[in-house]
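Figure-free illustration: sequence to structure, shown twice.
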Amino acid sequence: MSGRGRARGRARGAPTSQPEPARRPGETGAVPPPAGRGRARGRRPPPTDPAEAGAPAEPPMQQMAEMSMAAAAAAPSRPRQERTREGQGQREPRERRRRDDNDYDPVRTRPANRENKRGEAGQPVEIVANYFALRTLPEWRVYQYNVQYNPDIISRGMRRGMLREHEKATLGRTIAFDGMILYLPKRLPSDVTTLTSIRTSDQEPIQITVTLTNELPPSSPQCLQMFNVIFRRVLAKIGMQQIQRHYFSATASDTTRIEAHKLEIWPGFATSILQYETRVMLCADVAHKVLRTETVLDVLSSLYRANKATFRETAMKKLVGTVVMTRYDLSVCV
């Protein structure tokens, strides 16, 4: 090693002397420690107060809260500004800004300036569409009620059972109830009706309060939803099975079996009730469900007999990601 290198190393290791800074009259002789070099640069010097060194630093939450509360109290309260129409100084009424629950935009199938869609030239052709009009009585309404139980009943089945006890005397046979909202085709004599049922488990009386909340026209979204629920119940009553969102017929006389490919086809319907222009209509599309007649166990057995060495890998590729339906409750698993 050269002499220049050894001298450089000694220069690095030796403490460097800093010149004493100039002091003003009256200042003490305490000099702050010199700024560190390298990684020590910018670090805060250790505290000299023992109390400060022992207590961890905490944010002044109490002082901040007091400051924010004082600022909020001192700030002048501003009046609530209502939304104004664009280009005008008048305030828009709150009732007009709020969208009515019965507002519904029907499906438009013709331009607004045309009364009919019939052409003016050519030969007329008769066609049939899968839309069926739902006939309703003039000025017909569906009455929506809110149902409350005191004491509260959690079970939806128990709620329905207690409410159905009053069908013959008060409510009528035609009801639609989801556990909280009740739909009736007739209006009850009073807007608030109080009924009483006995809970069979402990013989405790349960007070049922039925309160009128809305009158729904046939074109309202709530009424259309009720129509769809009722129609699906009708499909279930005639023996059709629900698979996911649609209903299919599983009877042997309606299904078609293809033994060569181990498949079975179930016919069914995809239904929807909506408002089309001036009428409420039912759309019934024909749908089919294609099912395999072999089970997952049959597929695994055939793969195991074909090649035992690669059985696991082949089964993973064959079955992972497929849709499996159980026959006992027709539930679908992926």
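We now fold a second protein in the same way, so the two outputs can be compared directly.
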Amino acid sequence: MATTRSMYCLRAVLFGHTSDVRAVAAAHYPENGIITGSRDCTARIWSTNSGDAGLTETFCMKSHSKYVSCVCAVLPDDEYPFGLILTGSNDNTIRAFSLDSSVPKYTLSGHTDTVSCLSVGKFGTVLSGSWDKTAKVWLKQKLLMTLEDHEMAIWAVKIMPEHGLMLTGSADKMVKLWRAGKCEKTFKGHTDCVRGLAVLSSADFLSCSNDAAVRRWLVTGECMQVYYGHSNFIYSIAVLPNGEDFVTSGEDRAIKVWSKEECVQTILLPVQSVWSVACLGNGDIVAGCSDSVTRVFTADPSRMLDEAGQNAFKEEVASYISAKPSDLGEIKPEDLAGEEGLLVPGKTDGQTTMIRKPNGSVEAHQWSAADNKWMKIGDVVGSAGATPQTSGKQLHQGKSVLGQF
């Protein structure tokens, strides 16, 4: 992205799911369409409206007996000219749908616990990961091999673009690189559960974790960069169409946009958990949220909501965050700057600061490069950080407690 890049703003809010939107992905068809999966046990397709920049639900897939935890799209071929949609579920199965029927074309069975993640290769190879500590490789509805080496639940998988390499990320804090069913390399560095993976090229990839860090790795094993910016669990990561910049989301109510090794924009949402992010071919960002809503953001002014829509969104965020006080931890209010601290411009979009009010209370503010001013994001009262205590989320044996996250 150039330094004069446009900032992302709200494009659309998609209503339809009745529980957390746990997974989002770009569809191959329709062009720039969206796939969503939810705890309401359904997956849905959203298509761009013909008369405006909004999106409308055009297809609903109901087949799983428990919640949908992951979704992905399979490229079109002679048998399925519009491709397939794959859904993984807490019912331990993977189902394949085409757009001509709400009945699954087939079901892949073999995992013995939640199917938490899916990835598809360019030749139709499917890689699935599960809380049963294994990943499985499928082709043409047949199980080719099972990858076993992780000690805890697998939360992330990705197929590399070349050389037959595959990646898995686990609650055991490790990422593993596989070739022909064998683990060739283990990447150690994260200090908590690995939640997401994103491929940059045939030579390097990204991982994100509950430790609130993103790491860039070479496939040869070296960690080349660690990115910090989130204040809590990072659940999801996706690469933008330029193949270099990327976005992340997590338990701190935020989407972050990264370019040239730094966070260049923070988008706060009126939810606690931003479970999943995906990038469309047109550069738009899709976010699946804990309030059952999917939100789409764009850097293209022609697709942005009007000023009234943007202001309504900002007010919704401010109202939500004001009702959810942040934690102060061991910071002493008397050591903080007063309101005069807001006279000093921020250095980067999304930068946060705390100030002490005359009555002794503490407020958190975030710098908005788009508005060229500090915006209040909440009242501060106790400790922040990527811990189960501050997130309110717990893992047991690498799995989410009660299947909640």
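Summary for the second example: The radius of gyration is 21 Å.
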